[in-house]
Amino acid sequence: MIDRSVVPGGLPDFGSATAAALIITGYLIVAEPFVGLVLHRRFEAAERRVDSARRWLYRRLLILEWALAGLCLATVALAPAVSRDSVGIRLPTGWPGILGSVAAIGLALAVLLATSRQATRVPIGADLPTAGEGVLAMLPRTPVERRLFAIVSVTAGLCEELVFRGFLVAVLAAVLPAAPVWVCVVGAAVVFALAHLYQGAPGVVVTFFVGLALGGLYIVTGSLLAPVLVHALIDLRAISLGRLVVGNTARDVARPGRI
Q1: From the CA atom positions of the chain, what is the Rg in Å?
Q2: What is the pLDDT of residue 50?
Q3: CA of 106: how far to CAs of 57, 112, 132, 161, 169, in Å?
Q4: Residues near 158 by Cβ (< 8 Å), separated by ≥ 6?
Q5: C-alpha distances in angstroms, 65 versus 50, 195, 248?
Q6: Which of 134, 153, 195, 253 has the smallest number of Cβ neighbours within 10 A?
């Protein structure tokens, strides 16, 4: 269980790393949504004419995710009174933590397997009416893209949970020492949703509720283990969804050129 006894009690807990913690938090709130928009607009422009556009996007996402997670880990390492437990880097403890982790991971795995089976029954090129064009364009099409996207999915699960659920919740708890942890989790879910602004309003809303669910799982289990694995499994569903749109438009035909 994550409660006020686990997270930082105030900014002094970060000590000499306070400035770094606030700068990273400011970046997540203010700059990250616009960085995502710029990156995806460039991708969407290139995707219409270059066959390597998705691989280009995936590689840059990997760089950005790991760089941000590395900065958060370095900040925690430099903070004198902020431990790994404070940002969820520990195994779940107690029956609520262990049972909740197993149940959540099992459910996410079942959904992933169901999506994979469904993809084998739907004709290739079938439409996905609930997904926006920008999201559809990101789905992997080729075996190489699927392998690279699998790495991106696992990276997103690990890095984004560390950044948004572990680190950001800890900083918000330090900034708002009188607020209960669930308030910090809601705040982190809002920031997490805005980071997906490139998906449009529907994507932001869905991501907010996903962030709330992952945050709730983090509070109950007291560990980032289950949120990381559930997040990765959710993202891995895109590999099966990508199979449904292979050949759906002329964009899927190989084209020369690089970016």
Answers
A1: 19
A2: 81
A3: 30, 10, 28, 18, 25
A4: 69, 228, 232
A5: 24, 12, 30
A6: 253
Structure-token match 């590689």, residue found: 59
The answer on pLDDT for 36 being more than 80 is yes
What's the chain's average pLDDT?
Answer: 88
pLDDT in tens, 149-175: 999 999 999 999 999 999 999 999 999
Secondary structure (DSSP) of the chain: ---TTTS-SSGGGGGGGHHHHHHHHHIIIIIHHHHHHHHHHHHHHHHTT-TTHHHHHHHHHHHHHHHHHHHHHHHHHH-TT--TGGGT-S---HHHHHHHHHHHHHHHHHHHHHHHHHHHHSPTT---TTS-HHHHHHS--SHHHHHHHHHHHHHHHHHHIIIIIIIHHHHHHHH-TTS-HHHHHHHHHHHHHHTTGGGHHHHHHHHHHHHHHHHHHHHHHSSSHHHHHHHHHHHHHHHHHHHHTTTSSGGGS------
Q: What percent of the chain has pLDDT over 90?
A: 69
Are the beta carbons of 158 and 178 closer than 8 angstroms? Answer: no
Provide the token pair at 226: 């289950």
Give the whole-angstrom CA distance, residue 117 versus residue 166: 33
Give 26's contacts (C-beta < 8 A, 6+ positions apart): none
Residue 72 near residue 62 (C-beta atoms within 8 A) = no
